[in-house]
Amino acid sequence: MALTPDDVVTKQFQHVRFKDGFDPDEVDDFLDEIVIEWRKALEENAELKAKLAAYESGSAPEAAAAAPAPVAEVPAAAAAETPAEPAPSGSATATAGIIELAQRLHDEHVAEGEAKRDQLIAEAEAEVNRIRSEAEAKQREETSRMERERNSLEARITELRNFERDYRSQLRGYIEGQLRDLDQKSASTDSTPVSAIGL
Fold first, then answer.
1. CA-CA distance, 119 to 113, in Å (whole number)?
2. Cα(161)–Cα(148) distance, rounded to whole angstroms?
3. Cα–Cα nearest to 48, from 27, 69, 24
4. Using CA atoms, how far apart are residues 110 and 103, in angstroms rounded to an integer?
5. Please, are residues 81 and 4 in contact by the beta-carbon 8 Å criterion?
6. Which residues, including other chains, have CB under 8 Å from residue 87's CB and lie 6 or more apart?
7. Helix 24-57, helix 87-191: angle, nearest 10
8. How far apart are CA 99 and CA 37, in angstroms?
9. Which residue in 24, 77, 117, 119 could disulfide with 2, CB within 3.0 to 4.6 Å?
10. Measured on CA atoms in the order 107, 108, 111, 116, is the torsion positive or negative?
11. Dist. CA 67–CA 88, nearest whole Å
12. H helical segments located in the chain
């Protein structure tokens, strides 16, 4: 395929689904085509320069006679691109245009990639900060809840200890009172004659 600067300028790449940018394989294939055409143009340029130098020096009459034949081998597309200029400078211009376009595409893709990278990093940092703040808030809330629960349990323990102390005290008083009553009944029974008891 003969590649022209217009082909490079008008080339449309397919957009890739689910992500920004172009299909990398398609871009690589197109850049490979550019490289092939560029190498051809450089070879033709070097060959034409050598023939031009030989023709201008006039040292080889065969070179002058053979000069028109290789010029005819230059692709028609390259001749159509620069009709007003000699072939070597047209090839150089086309090559420079291709290089410039390739460099511009490269720079655009690099800039787009860096912008996307920065955006992803910023989003990730925002997400990390959000998750961290949520975790800290949840930790504070959980700590506060556990503190309240601990205070409630400590109050309940104190209440149960007071209840135990009061219950023991009341039980001791009741048992001691029953023992006193029993002792009094026993003492009064010992002092009462058997005949009074009804035996």
1. 10
2. 20
3. 69
4. 10
5. yes
6. 44, 48, 71, 74, 78, 79
7. 160
8. 11
9. 77
10. negative
11. 14
12. 5-10, 24-57, 61-66, 68-72, 76-81, 87-191, 194-197
Q: pTM higher than 0.70 for the full model?
A: no
Would you say 14 and 23 are in contact if contact means Cβ atoms under 8 Å apart? yes
Residue 154: pLDDT band by 50, 70, 90 thresholds?
very high
Q: What is the DSSP string of 148-187?
A: HHHHHHHHHHHHHHHHHHHHHHHHHHHHHHHHHHHHHHHH
Output the six-digit token pair for 60: 């080889």
Which residues, in sequence order, are CB contacts of 16 under 8 Å at separation 6+? 22, 23
Round the CA-based radius of gyration of the chain to a whole number and report it. Answer: 53
Torsions phi, psi of 84, nearest 5? Answer: -85, -10
Rounding to the nearest 10 degrees, give the CA dihedral for residues 48, 3, 94, 35: -80
Q: What amino acid is encoded at 14 in this protein?
A: Q
Rounded distance, CA 10 to CA 189, Å?
Answer: 130
Contacts of 76 (CB under 8 A, 6+ apart): 2
pLDDT grade, residue 191 (50/70/90)?
low
